[in-house]
Amino acid sequence: MICLNGLAVFIGLLVVYYILARIFFIDMLKAAMERDPAATSYALIIFTYAGFHALIFHKISNMMYKLSIPFLPRILSQIGRFFTGIEIHPAAKIGKGLFIDHGTGVVIGETAVIGNNVTLFQGVTLGGTGKEKGKRHPTLGNNVVVGAGTKILGNITIGNNVLIGANAVVLRNVPDDSTVVGVPGRVAKKRGQRIPGGINLDHSSLPDPIQQALERLQHEIDHIEEEIDKHGKE
User: Quick check: is 167 in a domain?
Assistant: First the structure.
């Protein structure tokens, strides 16, 4: 009988958690459904997605931080890190519709600011540089996609509609509607236009600015050789 009562209480708590998640975190649920083909239901996200759980921990710790409650917000953020593998400082400012895919190894620093409809893949770091105080972490605009393993460091601004390729290291400001690849990160604009389709998760078609520069250089060399040959025949 005791076991049955305990099971009933446990199921009841799961139902309450599900209902509260549907009410208070619907923007995060919709973001996961829209951007992850593996997400087949809200229930799957609510009970199994580490990124979703990490954001719940952050919402609560951030609320405590804003109320100037000492110590507890950091404790809660570390508990969230222990269970999810994702570390988000309680003071970090996060907009609506953030989706953390897989999430293991994601670090979001104290003064980081994240806009709306941002997607972060596993291993992303929004970190600081040096020991300076004040604003020392990145600011991400709206509709930004940050590939796996990317490091964005320092008090820099990433514009709206930016796609950052996997394992890039970004140390400078990035303008709107840009694509960034490489170490250090280099901007490869798509004619200054917004990335097609809004939030673009296709990392297989990222441009390589170094390859493009070498191709242009080779084209110039070919042109010069053609001109030399013409003059030699004359």
Answer: yes
Grouping H, G, I as helix, E, B as strand and the rest as coil, residue 192 is: coil
Q: Which domain holds residue 139?
A: 92-226
pLDDT in tens, 12-69: 888 899 999 999 999 999 999 999 999 999 999 999 999 999 999 999 999 999 999 9
Instruction: Note whether 106 and 120 are within 8 A (CB).
Output: yes
Residues 166-193 have pLDDT tens digits of 999 999 999 998 899 888 888 876 555 5
Question: Is the bond preceding residue 70 a cis peptide, omega within 30 degrees?
Answer: no
Q: Is residue 190 part of a domain?
A: yes
